[in-house]
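Long-time lurker, first post. I've been practising inverse folding by hand and with some scripts of my own, and I keep getting stuck on stretches where the C-alpha coordinates seem ambiguous. Below is the full C-alpha coordinate string for one chain I'm working on. Before anyone asks, I'm not after the true native sequence, just a reasonable design that respects the backbone. If someone could post their per-position residues I'd love to compare against what I wrote down in my notebook.
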Protein backbone atom coordinates (compact mmCIF):
# COMPACT_ATOMS: atom_id res chain seq x y z
CA UNK A 1 0.00 0.00 0.00
CA UNK A 2 1.25 3.53 -0.78
CA UNK A 3 2.28 5.37 2.40
CA UNK A 4 -0.07 8.24 1.46
CA UNK A 5 -3.02 5.85 1.48
CA UNK A 6 -2.22 4.08 4.74
CA UNK A 7 -4.32 5.21 7.70
CA UNK A 8 -3.10 5.52 11.29
CA UNK A 9 -5.14 2.56 12.56
CA UNK A 10 -5.91 -0.87 11.18
CA UNK A 11 -9.28 -2.24 12.33
CA UNK A 12 -9.75 -6.01 12.12
CA UNK A 13 -13.49 -6.76 12.16
CA UNK A 14 -14.90 -10.23 12.74
CA UNK A 15 -18.51 -9.98 11.55
CA UNK A 16 -19.35 -13.38 13.07
CA UNK A 17 -18.11 -12.53 16.58
CA UNK A 18 -20.71 -12.44 19.33
CA UNK A 19 -23.07 -14.65 17.30
CA UNK A 20 -23.12 -12.08 14.50
CA UNK A 21 -22.91 -8.96 16.64
CA UNK A 22 -19.66 -7.88 14.96
CA UNK A 23 -21.40 -7.53 11.63
CA UNK A 24 -24.65 -6.11 12.96
CA UNK A 25 -22.97 -3.41 15.04
CA UNK A 26 -20.14 -2.43 12.70
CA UNK A 27 -22.02 0.55 11.27
CA UNK A 28 -22.49 1.95 14.79
CA UNK A 29 -18.87 1.26 15.74
CA UNK A 30 -17.44 2.80 12.56
CA UNK A 31 -19.48 5.98 13.09
CA UNK A 32 -18.16 6.23 16.66
CA UNK A 33 -14.58 5.82 15.43
CA UNK A 34 -15.18 8.63 12.95
CA UNK A 35 -16.78 10.76 15.67
CA UNK A 36 -13.62 10.42 17.75
CA UNK A 37 -11.47 11.32 14.73
CA UNK A 38 -9.81 7.97 14.10
CA UNK A 39 -8.19 7.56 10.70
CA UNK A 40 -8.59 3.88 9.99
CA UNK A 41 -8.76 1.13 7.41
CA UNK A 42 -11.21 -1.66 8.22
CA UNK A 43 -10.69 -5.21 6.99
CA UNK A 44 -13.13 -8.05 7.58
CA UNK A 45 -12.37 -11.67 8.41
CA UNK A 46 -14.06 -14.25 6.21
CA UNK A 47 -13.27 -17.51 8.00
CA UNK A 48 -11.59 -18.95 11.07
CA UNK A 49 -7.89 -17.93 11.35
CA UNK A 50 -8.22 -15.36 8.54
CA UNK A 51 -7.13 -12.57 10.92
CA UNK A 52 -3.73 -14.25 11.36
CA UNK A 53 -2.94 -13.70 7.67
CA UNK A 54 -4.55 -10.26 7.46
CA UNK A 55 -2.40 -8.94 10.31
CA UNK A 56 0.84 -10.16 8.76
CA UNK A 57 -0.05 -8.57 5.43
CA UNK A 58 -1.07 -5.23 6.94
CA UNK A 59 2.00 -4.96 9.20
CA UNK A 60 4.14 -5.39 6.09
CA UNK A 61 2.20 -2.47 4.61
CA UNK A 62 3.25 -0.32 7.56
CA UNK A 63 0.53 -0.58 10.21
CA UNK A 64 1.69 -0.37 13.84
CA UNK A 65 -1.65 0.33 15.57
CA UNK A 66 -4.39 -2.31 15.46
CA UNK A 67 -7.93 -2.40 16.85
CA UNK A 68 -9.71 -5.74 17.18
CA UNK A 69 -13.49 -5.65 16.73
CA UNK A 70 -14.42 -9.15 17.81
CA UNK A 71 -14.17 -11.55 20.71
CA UNK A 72 -11.37 -13.30 22.56
CA UNK A 73 -10.88 -15.69 19.66
CA UNK A 74 -10.37 -12.82 17.21
CA UNK A 75 -7.89 -11.23 19.60
CA UNK A 76 -6.05 -14.56 19.70
CA UNK A 77 -5.80 -14.69 15.92
CA UNK A 78 -4.49 -11.11 15.74
CA UNK A 79 -1.88 -11.85 18.41
CA UNK A 80 -0.72 -14.91 16.48
CA UNK A 81 -0.38 -12.79 13.36
CA UNK A 82 1.75 -10.31 15.32
CA UNK A 83 4.03 -13.09 16.57
CA UNK A 84 4.38 -14.78 13.17
CA UNK A 85 5.29 -11.59 11.25
CA UNK A 86 8.98 -10.64 11.25
CA UNK A 87 8.70 -7.05 10.01
CA UNK A 88 8.56 -5.42 13.48
CA UNK A 89 9.33 -6.42 17.08
CA UNK A 90 6.03 -7.54 18.65
CA UNK A 91 6.16 -4.77 21.26
CA UNK A 92 6.36 -2.06 18.56
CA UNK A 93 2.71 -2.76 17.73
CA UNK A 94 -0.11 -1.25 19.80
CA UNK A 95 -3.16 -3.45 20.18
CA UNK A 96 -6.59 -2.27 21.32
CA UNK A 97 -9.96 -4.00 21.49
CA UNK A 98 -13.62 -3.15 20.98
CA UNK A 99 -15.24 -6.26 22.34
CA UNK A 100 -18.29 -7.72 20.58
CA UNK A 101 -17.75 -11.30 21.75
CA UNK A 102 -19.80 -13.49 24.04
CA UNK A 103 -17.13 -14.05 26.72
CA UNK A 104 -15.28 -10.72 26.83
CA UNK A 105 -12.70 -12.18 29.21
CA UNK A 106 -9.54 -10.44 27.99
CA UNK A 107 -11.07 -6.97 28.44
CA UNK A 108 -12.13 -7.83 32.02
CA UNK A 109 -8.52 -8.09 33.08
CA UNK A 110 -7.51 -4.78 31.50
CA UNK A 111 -10.60 -2.78 32.49
CA UNK A 112 -11.61 -2.03 28.92
CA UNK A 113 -15.36 -1.19 28.84
CA UNK A 114 -17.72 -3.30 26.74
CA UNK A 115 -19.64 -0.13 25.86
CA UNK A 116 -18.45 0.75 22.36
CA UNK A 117 -17.96 4.48 22.81
CA UNK A 118 -16.23 4.08 26.18
CA UNK A 119 -13.90 1.45 24.68
CA UNK A 120 -13.07 3.83 21.83
CA UNK A 121 -12.24 6.58 24.34
CA UNK A 122 -9.89 4.13 26.08
CA UNK A 123 -8.16 3.35 22.77
CA UNK A 124 -7.93 7.06 21.94
CA UNK A 125 -6.02 7.66 25.21
CA UNK A 126 -3.44 5.00 24.18
CA UNK A 127 -2.38 4.03 27.72
CA UNK A 128 -0.40 0.87 27.16
CA UNK A 129 0.84 -2.11 29.10
CA UNK A 130 3.24 -4.81 27.94
CA UNK A 131 1.81 -8.18 28.88
CA UNK A 132 3.14 -11.71 28.79
CA UNK A 133 1.95 -14.31 26.30
CA UNK A 134 1.93 -18.09 26.37
CA UNK A 135 3.25 -20.33 23.60
CA UNK A 136 1.84 -23.84 23.11
CA UNK A 137 3.30 -26.66 21.06
CA UNK A 138 0.61 -29.30 20.57
CA UNK A 139 -0.82 -31.80 18.10
CA UNK A 140 -3.74 -31.46 15.72
CA UNK A 141 -4.34 -35.09 14.80
CA UNK A 142 -0.76 -36.17 13.89
CA UNK A 143 0.56 -32.71 12.94
CA UNK A 144 2.67 -30.76 15.42
CA UNK A 145 1.42 -27.18 15.74
CA UNK A 146 2.27 -23.95 17.57
CA UNK A 147 -0.05 -21.28 18.95
CA UNK A 148 0.26 -18.20 21.15
CA UNK A 149 -2.35 -17.02 23.65
CA UNK A 150 -2.82 -13.88 25.76
CA UNK A 151 -5.56 -14.80 28.21
CA UNK A 152 -6.03 -18.47 29.09
CA UNK A 153 -5.53 -21.95 27.70
CA UNK A 154 -7.59 -24.90 28.89
CA UNK A 155 -7.39 -28.67 28.76
CA UNK A 156 -9.93 -31.37 29.44
CA UNK A 157 -13.46 -30.21 30.20
CA UNK A 158 -12.82 -26.59 29.13
CA UNK A 159 -11.57 -27.71 25.73
CA UNK A 160 -14.53 -30.02 25.10
CA UNK A 161 -16.94 -27.13 25.74
CA UNK A 162 -14.92 -24.92 23.36
CA UNK A 163 -14.82 -27.66 20.73
CA UNK A 164 -18.58 -28.10 20.78
CA UNK A 165 -19.23 -24.35 20.77
CA UNK A 166 -16.81 -23.70 17.88
CA UNK A 167 -18.45 -26.52 15.90
CA UNK A 168 -21.89 -24.96 16.43
CA UNK A 169 -20.60 -21.56 15.29
CA UNK A 170 -19.01 -23.10 12.19
CA UNK A 171 -22.41 -24.54 11.30
CA UNK A 172 -23.91 -21.05 11.46
CA UNK A 173 -25.72 -21.50 14.76
CA UNK A 174 -26.05 -18.10 16.46
CA UNK A 175 -27.87 -18.80 19.70
CA UNK A 176 -26.44 -16.47 22.40
CA UNK A 177 -26.55 -19.31 24.96
CA UNK A 178 -24.47 -21.74 22.88
CA UNK A 179 -21.65 -21.80 25.42
CA UNK A 180 -24.00 -22.43 28.34
CA UNK A 181 -25.80 -25.17 26.41
CA UNK A 182 -22.55 -26.93 25.58
CA UNK A 183 -21.24 -26.53 29.12
CA UNK A 184 -24.31 -28.31 30.51
CA UNK A 185 -24.24 -31.06 27.86
CA UNK A 186 -20.53 -31.63 28.45
CA UNK A 187 -21.02 -31.95 32.21
CA UNK A 188 -23.14 -35.05 31.64
CA UNK A 189 -20.84 -36.68 29.07
CA UNK A 190 -17.27 -35.73 29.93
CA UNK A 191 -15.01 -38.20 31.75
CA UNK A 192 -11.88 -37.21 33.67
CA UNK A 193 -8.61 -38.56 32.25
CA UNK A 194 -5.30 -39.68 33.72
CA UNK A 195 -2.46 -37.38 32.73
CA UNK A 196 1.23 -36.85 33.41
CA UNK A 197 2.22 -33.24 34.10
CA UNK A 198 5.73 -31.78 34.29
CA UNK A 199 5.90 -28.35 35.92
CA UNK A 200 9.32 -26.71 35.56
CA UNK A 201 10.87 -30.17 35.70
CA UNK A 202 8.75 -31.50 38.59
CA UNK A 203 6.62 -34.48 37.55
CA UNK A 204 3.21 -35.52 38.84
CA UNK A 205 0.36 -37.75 37.70
CA UNK A 206 -3.33 -37.48 38.46
CA UNK A 207 -6.84 -37.96 37.14
CA UNK A 208 -7.76 -34.57 35.76
CA UNK A 209 -11.16 -33.02 35.15
CA UNK A 210 -10.03 -29.64 33.84
CA UNK A 211 -6.94 -27.44 33.52
CA UNK A 212 -6.58 -23.67 33.25
CA UNK A 213 -3.30 -22.03 32.28
CA UNK A 214 -3.62 -18.31 32.77
CA UNK A 215 -1.95 -15.12 31.67
CA UNK A 216 -5.17 -13.39 32.74
CA UNK A 217 -7.50 -14.76 35.38
CA UNK A 218 -10.88 -14.81 33.58
CA UNK A 219 -12.40 -17.33 31.16
CA UNK A 220 -15.81 -18.67 30.21
CA UNK A 221 -17.54 -15.30 30.45
CA UNK A 222 -16.32 -14.16 33.86
CA UNK A 223 -15.18 -17.35 35.58
CA UNK A 224 -11.93 -16.98 37.52
CA UNK A 225 -10.14 -20.22 36.80
CA UNK A 226 -6.72 -18.67 37.40
CA UNK A 227 -7.54 -16.11 40.13
CA UNK A 228 -3.89 -15.44 40.96
CA UNK A 229 -2.74 -14.76 37.40
CA UNK A 230 -0.74 -11.56 36.86
CA UNK A 231 -0.29 -10.71 33.18
CA UNK A 232 3.28 -9.40 33.41
CA UNK A 233 4.95 -11.53 36.10
CA UNK A 234 6.73 -13.83 33.65
CA UNK A 235 4.86 -16.88 34.94
CA UNK A 236 2.01 -19.15 33.86
CA UNK A 237 -0.71 -19.56 36.47
CA UNK A 238 -1.72 -23.24 36.43
CA UNK A 239 -4.96 -24.53 37.97
CA UNK A 240 -5.43 -28.32 38.04
CA UNK A 241 -8.98 -29.41 38.85
CA UNK A 242 -8.82 -33.09 39.72
CA UNK A 243 -11.51 -35.69 39.19
CA UNK A 244 -14.74 -35.14 41.11
CA UNK A 245 -18.33 -36.28 40.88
CA UNK A 246 -20.90 -34.45 38.76
CA UNK A 247 -22.67 -33.33 41.94
CA UNK A 248 -19.45 -31.91 43.39
CA UNK A 249 -18.66 -30.16 40.10
CA UNK A 250 -22.08 -28.50 40.11
CA UNK A 251 -21.65 -27.46 43.75
CA UNK A 252 -18.24 -25.94 43.00
CA UNK A 253 -19.19 -23.74 40.05
CA UNK A 254 -19.75 -20.75 42.36
CA UNK A 255 -16.06 -20.92 43.30
CA UNK A 256 -15.13 -20.25 39.68
CA UNK A 257 -17.10 -17.01 39.78
CA UNK A 258 -16.07 -15.72 43.22
CA UNK A 259 -12.36 -16.47 42.81
CA UNK A 260 -12.06 -19.16 45.51
CA UNK A 261 -11.55 -22.20 43.25
CA UNK A 262 -7.92 -22.55 44.40
CA UNK A 263 -9.17 -23.24 47.96
CA UNK A 264 -11.06 -26.37 46.87
CA UNK A 265 -9.46 -29.58 48.16
CA UNK A 266 -9.64 -31.11 44.68
CA UNK A 267 -7.73 -28.20 43.13
CA UNK A 268 -3.97 -27.64 42.95
CA UNK A 269 -2.38 -24.41 41.74
CA UNK A 270 1.15 -23.68 40.56
CA UNK A 271 3.23 -20.90 39.02
CA UNK A 272 5.59 -22.01 36.28
CA UNK A 273 7.56 -20.98 33.21
CA UNK A 274 7.27 -24.29 31.38
CA UNK A 275 4.61 -27.03 31.59
CA UNK A 276 4.24 -30.35 29.77
CA UNK A 277 1.18 -32.60 29.52
CA UNK A 278 0.99 -36.16 28.26
CA UNK A 279 -1.80 -38.74 28.50
CA UNK A 280 -2.60 -42.16 27.11
CA UNK A 281 -6.03 -40.93 26.03
CA UNK A 282 -5.49 -37.45 24.52
CA UNK A 283 -6.54 -34.43 26.56
CA UNK A 284 -8.19 -31.82 24.35
CA UNK A 285 -6.82 -28.25 24.19
CA UNK A 286 -8.27 -24.78 23.70
CA UNK A 287 -6.66 -21.33 23.90
CA UNK A 288 -8.54 -18.06 24.36
CA UNK A 289 -11.76 -19.98 23.66
CA UNK A 290 -10.58 -21.50 20.36
CA UNK A 291 -10.38 -25.29 20.13
CA UNK A 292 -6.94 -26.35 18.86
CA UNK A 293 -6.01 -30.02 19.29
CA UNK A 294 -4.68 -32.39 21.91
CA UNK A 295 -1.79 -33.73 23.97
CA UNK A 296 1.11 -34.34 24.06
CA UNK A 297 1.81 -30.65 24.46
CA UNK A 298 4.02 -28.13 26.18
CA UNK A 299 3.38 -24.54 27.24
CA UNK A 300 5.97 -21.86 27.94
CA UNK A 301 5.84 -18.21 28.93
CA UNK A 302 6.88 -15.46 26.53
CA UNK A 303 7.50 -12.58 28.95
CA UNK A 304 6.43 -9.00 28.21
CA UNK A 305 5.88 -9.58 24.52
CA UNK A 306 2.59 -7.89 23.53
CA UNK A 307 1.76 -4.17 23.93
CA UNK A 308 -1.93 -3.65 24.69
CA UNK A 309 -4.11 -0.61 25.33
CA UNK A 310 -5.72 -0.71 28.77
CA UNK A 311 -8.49 1.11 30.60
CA UNK A 312 -8.47 2.75 34.03
CA UNK A 313 -4.89 2.35 35.23
CA UNK A 314 -5.79 2.88 38.90
CA UNK A 315 -8.24 -0.02 38.85
CA UNK A 316 -5.70 -2.09 36.97
CA UNK A 317 -2.96 -1.35 39.52
CA UNK A 318 -5.34 -2.43 42.27
CA UNK A 319 -6.01 -5.67 40.43
CA UNK A 320 -2.33 -6.41 40.03
CA UNK A 321 -1.60 -5.37 43.63
CA UNK A 322 1.82 -4.22 42.46
CA UNK A 323 3.46 -1.25 40.77
CA UNK A 324 3.41 -1.55 37.00
CA UNK A 325 4.83 0.58 34.23
CA UNK A 326 2.20 2.26 32.07
CA UNK A 327 3.18 4.35 29.05
CA UNK A 328 1.26 7.61 29.07
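-- Answer (accepted) --
I ran through it position by position. Result:
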Amino acid sequence: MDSLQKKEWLVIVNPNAGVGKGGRDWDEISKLLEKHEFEFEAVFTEKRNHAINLVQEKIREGYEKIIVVGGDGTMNEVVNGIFIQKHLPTTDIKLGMISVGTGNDWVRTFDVPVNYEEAIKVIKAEKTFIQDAGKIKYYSETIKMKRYFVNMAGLGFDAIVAQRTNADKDKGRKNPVLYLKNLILSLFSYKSLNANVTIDGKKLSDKIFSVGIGIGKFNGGGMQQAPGAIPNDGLLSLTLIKHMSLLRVAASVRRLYNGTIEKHKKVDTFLAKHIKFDSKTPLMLEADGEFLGQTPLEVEIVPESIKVIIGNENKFKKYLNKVIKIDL
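A couple of notes from the structure itself: The radius of gyration is 19 Å. The chain has two domains: 9-127+310-320, 133-303. Happy to go over any region you disagree with.
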